[in-house]
Amino acid sequence: MSRRLALLGALPQPVLEALGDGCLSSWAASRILAPLARANATHAAQLLEHLRTQPLSTRALKRWFEHYVRTDHATRERLVAHPALFCEAHDETLAQRAAAALAAGPEGEWLAACVRALRACAGGCTGASASCAPTRA
Q1: Where are the domains of the chain?
Q2: Is the confidence at residue 68, as pLDDT, over 60?
Q3: Which of 5, 43, 44, 81 gives a 20 to 30 Å CA spacing to 54?
Q4: Quick one: DSSP state of residue 132?
């Protein structure tokens, strides 16, 4: 109960109105819009306006925010301007990866795992240290 009361004190008025209107879940308000509003009130307001007209699932909103946190300022501007576009593009990328994995079958998955392991080993051997150098008999 105290967390929800603290949430009410921490949220900007437009977010509280969206909560009251049912346009926004308390999860999205506390986990996405509250931190975003503290960091960048303009971006929070823009995202809220988009969510009023084009609602996103909490799962999609979580992915959007995780990406937002890791990106530079220019990308953040594009993410805020078109949040639904990011979610559609992300879903399409996941679908393409799933289709490629299905087409490759278990053998393709095994081969991809081997390639990743070899790349990881090769990445650790940069600088050609004596322990990584191949030996000749």
Answers
A1: 2-120
A2: yes
A3: 5
A4: T
